Amino acid sequence: MRARIDTTTPHSARFWNYFVGGKDNYEVDREIGEQIKGIFPGLVDVALTSRQFLGRAVRHLAGERGIRQFLDVGTGLPTADNTHQVAQRVAPDARIVYVDNDPIVLTHAQALLTSTPEGATAYLDADLHDPEAVLRAAAGTLDLSRPVALMILNTLGHVADYAQARDLVRRLMAGLAPGSHLVISDSTATSEGMIAASDAYNSSGAVPYHVRDVAEIAGFFEGLELVEPGVVRVPEWRPDAAGTEEAVGAEGAVDAYCGVGRKA
């Protein structure tokens, strides 16, 4: 597996890991990270607040909506407070399936394969572009006849075509039971700085990542019941749910939006 890992070009999972303070990255990732910080320092805020949103969303779903199953697609490299850790602190019997097809992430899968005795955690080598295969594999750990929280965080930008990205989300949600929830967060083309940072990253040789308009992020939730406060910047989604955890200032300037929607 190590032979498949290219350490000569930047990689999105390692790059993001560097931005959230992780250690699973290489010099090439840190170099482009520092370059982009120089272009748009606000991307650090995007990374941190997006991670904080994950915690608030999972706590809300497990604590207030009784969700006990989580399907985290495009999970990336493990850092502190991964989905299973947050969920199982609230509900020890929660079951979590992580999905990724990246060799770098897969080498770290063992770090994710921990669980409370009452719950379960599994890791799948599967591809977002084949939703039906993801669902079939997830059914080995999750009961898809019961509600599931589908988490797709900072991942859909890897699907260049918006119509295709929406179709992939639709197909995943189609395989989940009523009462399931969709959780999405992503960087948005809401400032010149973010657009410039995206262009610089995509010119680095890494697999491109496409930032989208806010209306396009909202479009992923078509047909679902949006949980209040709807599609908003990531620091603005139920900030009181986590007390005063937000350490990033200038909340209105964060170029990332999120939302949670319920399948009726």
The largest pleated sheet is described as: 8 strands, mixed
Q: What structural class do you assign from the helix and strand content?
A: alpha/beta
Which H/E pattern describes the elements? HHHEHEHHEHEHEHHEEE
| Total of helices | 10
Task: Write a structural description.
The chain is built from 10 helices and 8 strands. It has 264 residues and is an alpha/beta fold. Strands 1, 2, 3, 4, 5, 6, 7 and 8 form an 8-stranded mixed β-sheet that branches. The longest helix is centred in the first third of the chain and has 22 residues, at 42-63. The protein is globular and about 45 Å long.
How are the secondary structure elements laid out?
Blueprint (H helix, E strand, L loop, with lengths): L11 H8 L7 H13 L2 H22 L5 E5 L9 H8 L4 E6 L2 H5 L1 H4 L7 E6 L5 H8 L10 E5 L8 H13 L6 E7 L4 H11 L11 H6 L5 E2 L5 E2 L22 E7 L2
Parallel strand pairs: 1-2, 1-4, 2-3, 4-5
Antiparallel strand pairs: 5-8, 6-8, 7-8
List keywords for this structure.
264 residues; alpha/beta; eight-stranded mixed beta sheet; globular
